[in-house]
């Protein structure tokens, strides 16, 4: 478990283009300690985990368990930023409709084929 947490932590740090020392200072540990955590050889305190989540915006679910909640995902947030409330509601409705389609019998296969056709046509 700690190995996977370390891997996710490294991805988060690298996504921020920060060195171990820089990221460590930001969350209250040394760069050396952070390096050991990233390798799964050291553990983080609850306080440090909370600081990582607060300062990076990454959810504890993702850091600890690898669970991605699309509504807390930075890429989702970036994609929705700049949209009006009405546009966000429309986008969420489209996502619901796609999910309903995918969950129908054969829907997933049909969606994959359609997306593949569209990508090939680009």
Protein described:
This protein is an all-alpha fold and 122 residues long. The chain folds into 2 domains: 67 residues, lambda repressor-like DNA-binding domains (434 Repressor (Amino-terminal Domain)); 39 residues. The chain is built from 8 helices and no strands. Helix 1 crosses helix 3 and helix 2 crosses helix 3. The model has no long low-confidence stretch (mean pLDDT 84).
Concise synopsis of the structure shown:
The protein is mostly helical and 122 residues long.
Features:
122 residues; mainly alpha; 434 Repressor (Amino-terminal Domain)
Topology:
Blueprint: H1 2-15, H2 20-27, H3 31-38, H4 46-56, H5 60-65, H6 74-80, H7 85-102, H8 107-120
Helix pairs in contact: 1-3, 2-3
Number of helices: 8
What is the assigned CATH homologous superfamily of the largest domain? lambda repressor-like DNA-binding domains
Distance between the termini: 41 Å
Q: Approximately how much helix is present in the residues?
A: over 70%
Compute the CA-based radius of gyration: 19 Å
Question: What does the overall shape look like?
Answer: elongated
Quaternary status: single chain
Low-confidence parts: none
Strand runs, count: 0
Order of helices and strands: HHHHHHHH
**What is the arithmetic mean of pLDDT?**
84
The secondary-structure class comes to mainly alpha
Largest sheet: none
> What is the CATH architecture descriptor of the largest domain?
Orthogonal Bundle
The fraction of residues in strands falls at under 5%
Number of domains: 2
CATH class of the largest domain: Mainly Alpha
Instruction: Output the CATH topology of the largest domain.
Output: 434 Repressor (Amino-terminal Domain)
